[in-house]
Design brief:
The protein is of the alpha+beta class. 44% of the residues lie in helices and 26% in strands. A 5-stranded antiparallel sheet has the order 2-1-5-4-3, with helices on both faces. It has a two-stranded antiparallel ribbon with strand order 6-7.
Length: 140
C-alpha cells in the first residue's frame, strides 16, 4: 500500500502532499522533515530506495523537483519507481512542462492514479480524460 505521495523542491519545500493513512499534522511535519533529510542530499549514484522506520521511501528527481512515495513492505519498489515516472509523464502531457501552476489539477491527476493507497489507473489518456472534460466545460 502507498502511505504517502510527496512533491518536494530542491530547497526542501513541500509542493504537494497526499497521505493515504490518517496522521496528525505534527507527525506529518516531522515525517516530511526526516524524508527531506534522507532523500535530498543523496547523489544520483545512490539507490533511489531508502528504508525509513516502517516505510520504504522511493524517490526520483526531475530537474528541481523530487517525487517521493512512501510504501509498505508489501509493495514493489520498482513498481513505485515506475509510478513516479508515469505521474511525471502525465503532468508533462497535460501542462506541456512539469512546471505546475494549478495544484488542484495536479491533485485530480493524482486522485485518478491512486485511490486509498492503491494504484487504480496508469493509462495516460484515461487519467487525463476527466481533466480534459472539465477544461471543455469551462471553455464553453
Amino acid at each position: 500500500m502507498i502511505k504517502f505521495f510527496l512533491l518536494v523542491n530542491k530547497q526542501g519545500q513541500i509542493r504537494l502532499s497526499r497521505y493515504y493513512e490518517p496522521m496528525k499534522i505534527h507527525k506529518r511535519t516531522l515525517l516530511e522533515a526526516d524524508i527531506i533529510k534522507n532523500c535530498l542530499p543523496r547523489t544520483k549514484d545512490q539507490c533511489s530506495f531508502v528504508e525509513y522506520k516502517d516505510v520504504k521511501l522511493v524517490y526520483r528527481q526531475y530537474a528541481a523537483l523530487f517525487v517521493v512515495i512512501g510504501i509498505d513492505d508489501t509493495e514493489n519498489e520498482l513498481a513505485a519507481y515506475e509510478l513516479i515516472h508515469n505521474f511525471v509523464e502525465v503532468l508533462d502531457k497535460y501542462f506541456s512542462r512539469v512546471i505546475m501552476f494549478n495544484l488542484d489539477k495536479v491533485h485530480i491527476i493524482l486522485d485518478e492514479m491512486i485511490l486509498n493507497g492503491r494504484v487504480v489507473e496508469t493509462n495516460k489518456s484515461r487519467i487525463l480524460a476527466p481533466l480534459l472534460a472539465l477544461d471543455k466545460m469551462t471553455e464553453s
